[in-house]
Structures are given as C-alpha cells and as structure tokens.
Specification:
The structure is a homohexamer of 341-residue chains. Chain A is globular, with a radius of gyration of 19 Å. The longest helix of chain A is centred in the middle third of the chain and has 17 residues. The mean pLDDT of chain A is 95. Chain A starts with a strand and ends in a 10-residue tail after the last helix. Chain A is an alpha/beta fold and 341 residues long. In chain A, a hairpin with a 4-residue loop joins strand 13 and strand 14. In chain A, strands 1, 4, 9, 10, 11, 12, 13, 14 and 15 form a nine-stranded mixed sheet that branches. In chain A, helix 9 runs antiparallel to helix 10 and helix 10 packs across helix 11. Chain A has a single domain, classed as 3-Layer(aba) Sandwich (UDP-N-acetylmuramoyl-L-alanine:D-glutamate ligase). Helices cover 35% and strands 22% of the residues of chain A. Chains in contact: A-B, A-C, A-E, A-F, B-C, B-D, B-F, C-D, C-E, D-E, D-F, E-F. Chains A and E meet through strand 15 of A and strand 8 of E. Chains A, B, C, D, E, F: Keywords: Kinase, Transferase. Chains A, B, C, D, E, F: This is 2-dehydro-3-deoxygluconokinase. Chains A, B, C, D, E, F: Belongs to the carbohydrate kinase PfkB family. Chains A, B, C, D, E, F: One of its GO terms (molecular function) is kinase activity.
C-alpha cells in the first residue's frame, strides 16, 4: 500500500550539451527536466510510493513537456497548476577531470516563481498525505513562495504530515540574511532536515571546523557537530548530512550521516566514477524519506539513502532511475558492478 | 570593397526538436541562433559585405554562444554589448503537411529588451556605414528599444546612411495601437520599407482587397495597391512586399514585388518544398539590401531578393547560408536542382 | 469532466531506422511504442478524456518502458498486468516515394498474447466507463484473447458501455476463415464499427465494386455500399470507413466517411505529405470516439476524425500528438500550415 | 547459380552533412562509401550475383572501412589491392527544392588513381566471369588507369566476357578531347553502352536536338537518335539511356530507354520524390546488367533497370539497397507505396 | 595461408541505449549484433584466419542485417541457414561505477534455437577446417542444439579438427543439472576448455577455495586448482581461465591463465577502464585459439589472449575490433595508450 | 588592450568517430578543425588577445568551413589565403584504457602544403604584432613552407616580434636529418622554444637519461638537462617542456617546466582523466605565450600554461575552449571539479 508523499517546488527544463561539449561548442542540447523537489518525487515513485509533485508551469507545449516527463516516471501531477509566463531553464555542462560541471540558470520569471500563495489548496493537496518535502530553493524563489511554503508546512503540521526540508542554499537566489530569516521561520514546522556543511553554515551560521570543501578534505567530526547543532536548534526529529569529497569532476567520494537524536550513523563511503552528479543530494533525500516512511532503522535509513544516491551518480539526468531492488542490492554490499544477466 | 552595413535587434537561441518531432516528444533540441535583424546581417556577410549586428547579450556562455554563431558566419560583433539577465529563447517545431510550424517564444526579460537607449553609441556604430536596417520587432521589445531605434535612425539620417525597415508585426509583443504610434514615428526616417500585406494592414491600417491568407489566395493587385500607399504615406524611396502562398506547411508559393516610385516589379514565382521557412522574409530583406547597395536595377533587385529567399526555404536554421553565386545562378534561371559536381 | 474510456490490446516496441534508412543499413533504431488500441487511448488522453489501456507486459525494464511511454502521454495504466515472457516488437522502415514502408513483426509469444482471459477483471476495469474500444488485432492474437475480448464486450454491454471495434485485419495473425468466425461472434456486442474496404471484404466478405487499392483509385459509391452492408448485417449504431488513396509512400489522399443509419457523411479530403503514416487509422478511430462521446453530429464527427488523422500523418511514431484545438482548427478549415507564433 | 560479374573503378568515402545541412553548418558527417562501379557491384550482389569489385585502397583503417562496407553488402573484395596514399573522398550536400545537391570532390592522389596497370592480373580476375563493367570515370583518373581499363576490356574480349560501360563524363577529371580519345579506343571492346544525352554529346559529340537539361524538358526523339548513333558508331549490342527530368532537387521525372539494334524500348516514367539521388544512374546500370545476364527481354530489361533505379532515389547513400523482389514488384506495377506488413 | 575455423551458435541483435542511459530512458538504441561464438569468429577473421560462423537466422531484413554485420567484419557466412521465426534480441544497459551493466534477454523462439540437428551438414561445414569452437550457450538453447553440438564435435573429432569449448554457463537457459548432463557428454570431444571459476563450479561442481566474486577478490591458487581438475577430469589438451576482478562497472582487473598439462601460465594483469565489457571472455577465447593455431608457446598464447581481451574492454559492441599488430604491441608491453600517429 | 599575435601553419579537418568507435565501425564522424598553430591561436583568442592565424585553404565549402570554425572562436582570418587543391584531413580515433588513440593523416597535397613562400606578405601580416608562433610541423610540410617560415621569422626578428616555436617532430612528414637541418636554421630566430624530450632528441640530438616514454616514467632531472641544453645551443630566452606520463589512454600525469636562463620552474602535476588529449601541447604553448605576453613571472607562466593544458584534456576537439578565469581558478588551486552554479 503506497504512501502519499507530496513535494513542492520548481521543475526546470535542463539543457545539456552532449558528450562533454561546452555550451559554446554545442549544436544540440539533450533535454531533460528536473529540480530539487521533483527529483525527490521521482525517487519515491520509483520505490513504489504515490508521489505528487506540486508546481506551476506555463500552459504551452514546454510546460506540458515538463508534466509529461514527470508522468512518465510515475509522478502524479494532479496538483500542477498551469499558467504564467515561462518554464525555468538551466544549462548544464558536464565537467570532467579538473574541469567543473557548470550550471547557467535562466530561471527568473518562471511560472512557479510568480505564483500566488493562494493558488495552492494545501488542505486538498495534503489530504491523506504521509510526508511533505521541500527544499531551501522553493522559498528562495520569492516572498510569495516563502509564504506558500509556510502555508504548506503549517497545514502539514496540522494534518499530522511529516515535513522534511533539504536546506539547499542557492547564493544566486537570495542573500544569506534573507535565507536565514525565512528558513528559520520555516524550520519551526520541519521534522527532518537534510543538508551539507555549507548549507548549515550559510543559512544558519552553524559550522564545523577544519573542512575545506575545495580540497576534498572532510572532517567527520565537524559534520557530526553540525548535525547535532541543527537538531537541537530546531527541535528536529532527525538530521541528515551528505558528505561529498570532490577529488575531481570525474571522481568523488560519497557518503552520508544521520543523527536521530540518540546516535549518529555514518553510511558506507563510496568512491564514485561520475556520469552525472546533478540530483545527487536529492536522491539521498528521496532515499532517506522512503526508508523512514517504511520503518527502516536509522542505520538502515542512512545506508539506503547513501546507496540510492551513490547509484544516482551513474544515471544521466536529474532523476534517479533506479529500482528498489537495485538500491537494496547495493546497500547490502554488492558494489562490484558485475553484469546482471 | 565591402560596404559597412549595420542591423540592430535581438538574437535568440532557437531550440528545434529534430526530425519533425513535437516539443512534447523531444529528448533533444537542435540549437541555432537567430532573429530578424541578425538573419539579415548574415545574408549580407555571405554576399561579402561588412555586416555588423548590434544587440546586447548576457555575459555568460549562452550569450557567448550567440556571438560565436554570428562570428562563424562572418558577422562583425564589435558593437555587441554584454550584460543583463538572459538571452531570449524560442522553441520552434518544424511543421509538415497540414500541421503548421509552431513557435513558442520565451524572450521576455532578455538582455537586449532591457537595454537602455544610451548604451548604444550610434555615432560610432554608424560611422562609415552605408546602410542601417531594423525590423518592427526591435521597437516592439519596449519603449527603451523604441527610443534606441529612434536614436539610430535619426543618427543614420544625419550621417547619410540609408535606412530600411521590415515592418514585421508581432502581435504577442505589442498592440496594434502601440505599434502604429511607434512605427509611424520611426517611418519618418526610413527609406526602404519591407513587409507583407498583413504587416501593412496591422501596423498602418493600409490594406488590400480580397486576400485571404489562410486560403493561400493572393491578389496581386491588392499587394500593388498596398505598396503604393506605403510609399506615398511615408515618402519612401522603395517598398518591397513578400508574397507567400501557404498551400501547406510543406509546400508554399513564394515571390516578391518591389515598387520604386515609378513602376512595380513582380519577381519570378517559386514553388518551394520547405525544409525550414523561418527567416524567409529576412533573407528577402538581406537580398534586397545587397542588390540596392550594389546598383542592381529595381527589376534585378526584386529578382535577387526573391531568389535568395527562395533558397532560404531549403536551409536549416534562421540564417540563409547561400553564396552570391548560388543566388545569381537561380536568379538567372536554373531552378532544376541538378547536382553540382 | 472527462469520460472514462477503456481500450484493450497489445502494445509493442517499435524500432525504426532513422532518416529513411533501411534495416540492413541501420546502426541505431529510434524506439517508440505503439499498437492499435494503445494509439487510440493516447488520442483520447490528448483530447482530455480519462483513457485506460489494458494489456500485459513483461515485468522487466522493457515492459516498464512501454508503460512509461503510455503514462508520459497521459494514458492511465492502472489495469496493465505484468508478467509473461516478452514485449512484442515491430521493426518499421519509413518508406519514401515508390518504396513502401515496411513492417517486420516480431510479436509472437508476447506477454499479452499469452495472457489468460481470467486475468482481466472486466467488471472492475469497465466500472464507470463510457466507452470500450478494441480492434481486430486483439482477438487475432489467440483464442485466449478472442475469449478475453468476448468477456470484455459482454461485460461492456451489460454495464451499458458503448463498444467500438476497428476491424483491422492482419493476414499474418490469422486466416480469413478464423477471423470471420471470431469477429462475427464479437460484432454482436459492437455498436460502432470502423474499417476500410479491405477489412470488410477480408473479414466478412462484404465488398465494394471497382476499387483497386494498389492504384489509388477509390470508388466512393463502393465504400458507401460497404458501410451500409456492415451496418445492416451487425445491427450497428454507426459505421466509419477510412479512405486512403496511395499515390506513393510520400503522398496520399486521405478522408473518411461515416454512416449513422440515416445518412452517409464524407469528410473533407486531404492531400497529405507523409512523415509517418503508421497509426493513421487509429487516430481516425480516436477522433471519432471523442467526437461521438462529446455529442458531435455525425457530420462533425467524421470531420473531426478526418482532421485528427490527417494531422497524424505529420507526426513521428504511432501516437497522434495533437491537441484538441489543433484538430478543431484544421477541421474548421485552416490547412494552410502557416507558422503559429 | 550466381554469375560472376566484375566491376572496376574507384570507391570513395562519402561525407554527407545530416538533415539537409550545408557543409559550412555541419558538425558531423554521415559516412558511407561509393563510386560508380562499386555501386553497380552492390546492386548485382543484392540481386544474388557473385559480384567482385576491383580497386586499390590504402592499407590503413580508412581503406579497410571501404572494404568492409563492400563486404557488408555482399560484394567480393578478393581482388582489392592495398597500398598507396589515400582513399578518395567526396563531400555531398543533399539539396532540396531549388537548392541543388552539391558534390565537392577530394579524390586526387587516391590509391587507385596512382595504381600501375600491371598491378591488376586481369587473367585471374576475369577467369570464369560473365560480365565486366566500368564507367568513364575510371579511365579519367589517369593514363595508368586508362591503360588498366584497356588491359581489362581486351582480356575480357578474349575470354568472352561481356563488357558494359557507363560513359559518365566528369568534366573535373579530364578534357573533352582527352575523354574522346581514350573512350573511343575503349569502346572498341564494349558491348553495352549506358549514358545520358550529355555524356554522349560531351564524349563523342553525338547529340540530340532541342533538349535543355536545365529546364527539365526532354525530347524523347532526341534520345532515340542518340542511342542509335552510339549503337552504330561503336558496333554495340545495346545502348541504354537514362532520362532525368529535373523539376527541382526534391522532385524528378525518371525513366530509361534501351535500344537493342532492332527496336527502342522506353520504360515506364516515374515521378520520384528524392531522398538521395546519387547513384541513380549506377543503379540503372546494375539493373540492366542483371536483367540482360538473366535473359530478360529488351523491354523487360529496361523496365527492371528503371524500376530498380526509381527505388534508388528513396535510398540513403550511393548503394541501392533493394531486393530482387522489391524491384520486380515495382516493375510489375505497384507504385502505391502502401505499407508492406 | 589462413586456417579454416568454424564456430557454431546464436547471433543476436543487441540493443543498447546510448550514453549510459537506462532502458526506461532510451528513445533510441544503438544496434549491433553478437553472441559468444560469433564474437570468436570475428576475432579470428580480424587476425587473418578464414573464420566461418554457423547459425540460422530468419529470412527477413533483420536476419539479413545480422549476416551483413558478420560479413562486414570478414566472417564467412556460407553455412548460415535462413528460416524460422525470429532473431534473438538482447537489451544491454552499459553500467557505470556501482551500477552494473544489465542484460535483458529476449532470445526465446529464435530461428537457431528451433533449428533441427539435421539441418547442419557437418561433414561439409568442417571439411578442411582446423578448429571448431562452441560455447556452453549453444547446447543450452535446447535438446535439438545439444544434439547438433554433439554431431558437430563428433564429426570434428573424426576429421581431426581441434575442438574448443567456452563453458559459459547461463542460468536463465538451463538448470545446473541439465547443463552438467549435457556438457559432460560434449566434453568427451573437447580439446581445449575455457571458462571461469563460476562456470566450472556451476557446470561440473569443480570449485576453488576462498574466492568471492562479488568482492573482486581472486585466489590465484584456487583458479589453478580448478584448471587442473578440469584438465584431468576431461582428458583435455589445455584449460584456460579468465580472471576478472570487479572493482566496479567502470574498472576491472583482468588477466588469464592457461594450463597445458605441464605448467600453469598466468598472463600479465591489466587494470582496465571499461568502455564495453560484453564479449570480453569471447575475445580471450578468440585470442587463445589464434595463438594455439599459430604455434605460440603456452606462455605466449595466454599473453596474446589476455592482451586481446584487455583491448576488447575499450571497444564498443560485442566484437573485438583490434588488429593482430595491436594485440602483439600490447602483449609486448606497450600499455601506455600514447597516441599512434 | 589586446596584443596582436600571429600563428602560421596548417589547419586540417578532423574526423572523429563518436563514442569511442573505431574507424571501421563508424557510420558518422564528428567534424572539427585543428592544427598545432591554429590551436594556439584559439587559446590566445579565448584569453582576449587579437590572434591571427595564417594559412591557405581551398576556395570551396570545405575550406570555408575551416575558416568559419576559426572565426567562431574569435580567431582573425584576415590573412588566410584561398586556393589550391584541398584541405588536409586527419582521422582520429579516441582511445581508451590500453587502446591508444589513433591518428590517420590524409594531409598530403593540402593547399597550405603547396603554397609558395611569396604568397605570404609577412611585412603586412606581422605589422604591429607582438608575437609570432609556429611549430615544427609547418616547415616539415615542404621546402616551400620551410622557406615561408624562414621569411616569417626573419621579418619578425626585424620588426621586433617575439618568436616562439613548438618543436613538434612528426616522423611521417620528414626525416630526422632533414628536420635537424631545417630547424637548426630556423632556431636562430626563435626566442622561446617549447617541446618534449622526444622532440629535442629527435630534432637536435639533445637527450636526457633514463626516460622511457612508453613506461610513463619521467626523469625530472633529464628534462631539466634538456631544457638547459636547448637554451644554450640556440641562445634562447626561454625553454618550456611538457611532461606527459602515459599510464593509459584514459589517464595521464601532466605537468610542464620552464627554464628562463636563471632557474627551472616545474609546474604543479595534474592527474588527468582524458576526454580528448589532442591539442594538449598546443594549449600549453597558448597558455605560456599568453602568460609571457602579459608579464607573468616564469613561475606563474608555467603554472598558467600547465593549468590551461590540464583543462584541455577535458575538452572535445583540438581547441582549448576555456576562459581566462577558468585557467586562473585552476592555477590558483581549485582542482576539485565542484559544480559551478
């Protein structure tokens, strides 16, 4: 019996030059669609949950294409609004070796960013839901969306829906000051927070020692400290942190940790050879939500989330096209990549 | 010795699903760049003129790609400004048979549409120029650009630069009333006007009898009437009108006429099997400007323009990638399409 | 308020060499999915109906891809069964000029062809439905599916669901004798029959005079005769016949007629330049069902169906990706193919 | 029991921009291989003959790729020499509508053009052969190859092998004077000549009245006259002429005639919608040779050749990928292009 | 002077989503053809041997395409039968990092799997041959093919043809019990066995200690033990074992060993960065057969086989497109991957 | 204020099979354009210099395409001559793992290789220039080009233009003896030499101890020795050497050193995961020239050059499409490859 899960945010068209080409070289773009919360919805649909994505897209073929992409992968789009001016776009160069992946956003004035809070009927949307998820990107799109988020989490709280939030700080969307103000208000209604050290520091000034993310050196202790501070500051039920070690655009270390108020669980650490790392964090969030929704222990939950997001790095596009059994198989230990016949 | 020609307007990224796919089916887009005035500049560069395109593009890889596309085809980009938020985009489905080609514009808030009139140093830009060309799209982008156009044509007039304008009415950009007001002011400085019956009627209320464009029926007499009225109303030196007969999205009739104040010259009529018809009118304008700049007679000029734009219908993208000798060869009569070895 | 419509049959993977290549030349195949009844479901979903497709696909990524393709285009797949050995495949060369399109079927042993009649819970599937549609292909897949069809139409009849059947004779699937025996039994429960002259002749021995389909000569009188005979023989509520004039693989004449027991209505005749003609008949059926479900007159219904299927010839793949407004626009007369901006 | 047939000439790499792009736009080329005599060999292999192609290619992966392409389509490459500097290349833009297809040759210094006559062991190559075919291109590659052709046809004559020659005048390879001198010598050993009016006029000064090939106007009488003159001048056993009416790069009329010394047979005339017309004449030659080798009457032979080459216009690449039964089917009259299921 | 070598088995169409896409994401498939024994034949043709592949394919364009693919790469297809229902297909996702490559078989009811033993005239096929090769896949296709294999190896033995067998256990084709029964009978006629630890254990219950293939840990001692047991049990002339260390789907260790009854030779160990690992074992077998046929010492033979199959991991498709000199160059030690100009 | 820089040499069409395919497998080639000196010009244009490339290309669409490719990336083509027979071509297989990248040259008889020294007006070309760069490939194209190089460097010297030369020995173009004779003469006018150990040894017999390039073992001391010897022998102002460690075709170590007469500076050493390594050395030269032209210290210059060329290994094609800020960012230490949003 699938659980109803609702995620809320922006879905963008993603335009990616094929074969490691740069934008100035490209004569074609591969087109997919994605966004932090949409990516989470796809993960949950893949694992069998009834996942709804809430957004607003323009009433034209481009908006329809975004809806179709979600439907294709099993996401329910019943609450998607149509109208407004445009679908947000982002251009994404796939990096390699020392050349970083590049994201050029062209998301201003998107339909969702201009939507009014009252367009969303949260009572109806969250009716019967078990979980509501959003990220720090959604309220950053404007005061209107910050308000919509607040409406949503308040309704969720009232209806007994668990709320998770991936902090996801985007410096191009708002200032640190604005982010802190808005996010602090929203955190009051959040049960599970997900982030990385940078997010916590940027958004809430919560920081760990001795980690230089450009060097790929991670202080595990620092992260644990951050998790606990977050947990305590906002009276959460759980805090998850993803730990990316950036050796190069082609190779990363990847793991996560989860603090449930009692103990901190660090997942297995994966060395990933990257096909496409966009959506890595979202796939972790999607995995974590699935695991917590389905009664996994804290230890199992972080392992499931880490395995799911490890696999994401091998998948083209924002969405994590892996099955439940593939995640469980990796989580249980088979990372050999042997051919499955 | 090439002539310096300047065109002014917007260049957009064009995203086209390959192989007649619709946007909702597309997993990739072919990417080219184009816009009414940029297309004219490419035509002129192809024929050997020193063509400058003036616009503003964002200072990011997407803006750079637009510049590169122009440079590739020989257009000088010395006066292109960098800054602003975004490059305009348009999505373009290639129609076939009874299914019309579809254009979805996503051009709002583009860098050029937000540029200030004073950013353009027309004295410098038009220094030494022989010709200045713009279309009705540029002033439709906003009052700022209407002012920039006015600045440009006034400077041109003062410097003795011939000015041409393709009326190009775009109903999604402005109302008929606004268009009439702005365009009437600009026409005072225009020497050569180019348009089709619809443009003249929409923008200036100048109309011909008994033509139903959706039926593909053209009244030649009506068009002549329109040309003369335009000529007289705005004290022009020449008026050109393109005549498209739309049998289907795959097959059109195509020709043009030119009125030089004395006589009206109708070009040969071509039956074109369409590969890509976007930019058809622009390639006519580019051909006409080249011919008039190079001392062609009125009769020759309209034949050159018609031949050039006939060929455009067989070229992928907005730009008309044909050589001077190819146009002349067709103009002189070889429409057999025999293999050139 | 959308109507629930159910279609039942096989969905196959379609492998098409790109760019007019032949199978022996192909180094890649474009992959889409389609089948007579699935194609009808997509048409209805496009027009806003709640369309369900019933079938069985293997429980592997290939079967999942077929489901995803349906979901993407809005078809409900709630009643799709999973299991069995394989998804049927067909290879499809796109012909041109005098070279015919070629279909190589590899559909034997598909999951749906091996499904047992009792796997389909027609009470539940047809609960609340307004319309049930199948084609002559489904019962031709085997006695098991002939039985499943019989179960379905009997249930439909009992529940007051309108039943339509596209005769669609496939000589590679069964003999004329077998077809006649099975189809005659099924026709007892059918309200609306759709076919072409060939179908009626092959399946029921109902034939018109003086038409040689390989010559592209159509006797309208003959077709009317066939429609009436079908209507009378099986006490139908309506008979539709599609009329294809095959001039070449690139150019066809296309129209339809509909007999409602009182009068025969012949649609407008279209000359189509073909992009992809597979699914042409299905798009006619989809259009007809939509029109009849929504209270169109007989005349309007056949015009809607003809316009919808005219457009299909310009769409890549089996599915007819056109919107309601596009069909209505063509039906009302704009076949000019002018760019829609 | 297949007949051994030998053809001799150059095979080149053909580089074609995809999707009607021009060379200056192309970011990729489709690569195939072809050449007048190789194309004939492929046709014959397709129809079941044992076709050998004789040439010389460089001993590198590019030369190997040419060999592989021949082998793939059933041509025997036992007598292909390896060595020399390079494989000839030609760039080929696919034209459309009034824009002609364009061929840019880059064939100088190819391995075959530099081969020495004594490298070819004609005794061995022609041992057991029934037919030897070459075109006017081969001797035009240089005096060495003119000599090799002479060696070949003399040996053929001695061994009782029928010799055919497609005149195929290429003005970029040699002058009219040189062509006439060399070809006249070779014609002494030729049994069947194939050409078009232009060839006969250019090479031998044999011309027909009142035909302007750039206008698409064909004088059938003129062609008959040319055929008879050729027949008589060189004491041939048969003369075939292909008749192309070039309406545009997209649409041609196509037919052929054959004179056997008694009567002139004109084939059915096809209106072809062109996918790729390169190799059209070669596919006619291939069809004619097959028909004459297999005892077809003169009338049947020209119909078979015309049907085969009609189909070629719908096939991508130089080679005519059609089966014997497809040609016979068209020859017998089904040009409807109806789907073959 | 090339040696005649015969291999016998199934060739399938392989459909691979491009660019690491998963099947559910794919809008196109790259199409190649392959199968254990066909792959070996291509290797041998590449090295200059006269390699024949024996199979049965359907008499349609799909079957012809498989034949053409073999011919292209130099394999003789004289003994390929035509008929039956279909060509087997397999879908193949290319894995990366921790995501394993995935194979979905759709090979049931293929023409070869339904062929009758008496259709193969082994006397003729093996006439003049030096070597016969098959794998454990062929007899697993059905009792008919197990019989055909038995016929083949008995004939081979009688004619003095060396027989090799790659054990290649496929659990989806037959049970361990069945495999053991059939393979034991066939081994009586085998001279050279090739396998990996898993094969030997699954098929014959011969196993080594302390190797966990999912962990990528290899016990060299264990493998030697297996080789010797196989050698002794079946009175072989040689046993080869491939040793794959699966670190991930992107990186493997690769080597082989060969036991000639006297000594065990372990090849150099390669760390391979994988482009496409399907056919890796087959390319080892192809290399080993070539080496043994051409008088290489045991040590050289295993080094040649290991180098050949190391290179295979960098080649797209099942076939190992490398030249003799490339293998020898690597075998002699240049693994630097420096550009060859 | 950009510096005028001139480079002189050949630009070739580069044909690359996509996706790691080999030439014998390719059905299409990706087409780019490149050559040692053109690549340097693009680097300099990217960093903002006014870079001119001097060459000769055929006056046809293929030559034009090469010019367009240069213009696209900002290189000035004012001094490019048109004429001659052909554009040089090279085929380039992208290697992987132990399979080396392969280059097949087809550059003989190119327009530039046949150009006459007097066609180049060096007074005009070098007027106002700050730097002139060529490589050892240009004089290797023939005595005519050796003379043209000599004319160029003499003129440069006279006009006070700094001259750099990348030794770039190509064994297929000339013998060691010839190279030594010609290069020795040219070195008299050179200020900055760039090379690798192999070049110095091959061209001038200057060699270092104990380095086996096929083993990937580099003796830093040896390289320093070579640099000093080069410096002293030819009275240079600077010597740069690139140090490639070839672990495999997929992974290399990469660094450079620079000797300015006082000290030797070794750059940071990068481990690069290779996308496309052609043009790696040229991007080093381009970086070095930029740095020296813009007043970087010796230490900074070699770091800039190394960072620029490190990034090149991740860029498709010959040209190094990176921005000044990207190089500086890497040079300053961020090699983490983290996504740039």
């Amino acid at each position: 019996m699938p659980n109803k899960v609702v995620t809320f945010g922006e879905i963008m068209m993603r335009l990616t030059p094929p074969n490691y080409l740069r934008i100035v070289q490209a004569e074609s773009f591969d087109v997919t669609y994605g966004g932090g919360e949409a990516n989470v919805a796809v993960s949950l649909a893949n694992y069998g949950e009834e996942a709804y994505f809430v957004t607003k897209v323009p009433d034209n073929p481009v908006g329809q294409a975004a809806i179709n992409h979600l439907r294709r992968y099993g996401v329910r789009t019943d609450y998607v609004l149509k109208g407004g001016e445009r679908l947000g776009i982002y251009f994404n160069e796939i990096g390699a070796s020392q050349r970083a992946s590049l994201v050029v956003y062209d998301r201003s004035y998107s339909s969702i960013s201009q939507a009014k809070p009252e367009e969303f009927d949260w009572e109806k949307i969250l009716d019967g839901a078990k979980w509501f998820h959003f990220t720090g990107i959604t309220p950053a799109l404007g005061d209107n969306l910050a308000q919509a988020c607040l409406d949503a989490v308040k309704t969720a709280k009232r209806l007994g829906v668990t709320v998770s939030c991936d902090l996801n700080y985007r410096k191009k969307l708002w200032t640190i000051e604005k982010a802190r103000e808005v996010m602090t208000k929203l955190m009051e209604y959040v049960d599970i927070a997900i982030g990385n050290e940078e997010d916590a520091e940027k958004v809430f000034g919560i920081k760990a020692e001795s980690t230089d993310i450009t060097k790929g050196v991670l202080s595990e202790e620092g992260y644990k400290e951050v998790a606990k501070k977050l947990y305590d500051t906002f009276s959460l039920k759980g805090v998850a942190i993803t730990l990316r070690e950036s050796f190069s655009a082609s190779d990363n270390g990847w793991s996560g940790l989860y603090y449930d108020g009692n103990e901190i669980y660090r997942s297995r650490r994966y060395e990933v050879h990257i096909v496409d790392r966009v959506g890595g964090g979202d796939s972790f969030a999607g995995g974590l939500i699935y695991a917590l929704l389905n009664g996994y222990s804290s230890k199992e939950a972080v392992e499931f989330a880490a395995a799911a997001s490890c696999l994401k790095h091998s998948i083209v596009g924002d969405f994590n096209h892996v099955t439940l059994s593939e995640v469980i198989n990796l989580m249980k230990g088979d990372a050999s990549g042997r051919v499955q016949r």
